Amino acid sequence: METKPGQAYGIVVFTAAIILAFLFLVNFFNISYPISVSSRTVSGELSVVGEGKVDVVPDTATIQAGITAEGRTVQEVESKINEVNNRLIDSVSKLGIDKKDIKTTNYSINPSYDFTPNGRNNISGYAGNAALTITVRKLELVPKIITAATEAGSNQVYNSGFTVDDPSKYREEARNKAIQNAKEQAQKLAKDLGIKLGRIVNIVESPSGGPVPLFRQEAGLGGAPAPDIQPGTQTITSQVTLYFERR
Q: Is 245 helix (H, G, I), strand (E, B) or coil?
């Protein structure tokens, strides 16, 4: 069968149009060669939460010692505060407290005013405040430190709490207990469900609970017997989630 010139021309134009349309689609959708299709099957997982706790006796105490003073001038107030401050530092240092564990956390002096009937405020004097934070690493010294600070002239002394100086090893112990707890629960759950567990594919640890100060105890002032200090115990916790393969 003979193809007429007009028909041949139409076929060429049609074929070219198809090719151009295909190339346009390839370029528009950014298709690259070779084109391949792959699939991946993820096996089911079983997740179990475990908890671990460790009770720890605190080994560090924090004592706050406040100093207040009043005077007619700023210099007078400074002198009074510095006198008590230096005497306090000297007293607790003699008990074995390192200078690096004594920190000034507040120091301020403000004017005091007299209010007159004519509405004018006249400065009548000055009042100052200072505060020292003392870290005690031998708990048996806490009563002696409180007594020494009071006798040195501090008018407000209190034990702001007990903590664990280095809780990292206890956190690790709590974490290990949490992991073991999760494994035991997973084995029991797998038995109840009639499934078998594979390897652990992921582990996530939630923020752990660390030691926190237990209390604030006000100290008695001069002449009172030394307070009986009991640090008690603190609980360090860990929570982990284990993800097991299901077979």
A: strand
pLDDT tens figures, 17-74? 555 554 444 444 443 333 222 222 345 888 999 999 999 999 999 999 999 999 999 9
CB 218 within 8 A of CB 65: no
The confidence score (pLDDT) of residue 247 equals: 82
CATH superfamily of 45-55+168-210+238-246: Protein of unknown function (DUF541), domain 1 (3.30.110.170)
Pick the CATH number of 60-163 from 3.30.10.20, 3.40.50.450, 3.30.70.2970, 3.90.1150.10: 3.30.70.2970
Return the pLDDT at 70: 95
Helix, strand, coil percentages, rounded to 5, for the chain: 35, 35, 30
More confident residue, 10 or 111: 111
Question: What are residue 241's DSSP bridge partners?
Answer: 49, 204
Q: What is the mean pLDDT of residues 215-241?
A: 66
Cα separation, 4 vs 52, whole angstroms: 89
Q: What is the 3-state secondary structure (H, E, C) of 109-177?
A: EEEEEEECCCCCEEEEEEEEEEEEEEEECCHHHHHHHHHHHHHCCCCEEEEEEEECCCCHHHHHHHHHH
Q: In terms of Cα–Cα distance, which of 53, 130, 39, 50 is closest to 86?
A: 130
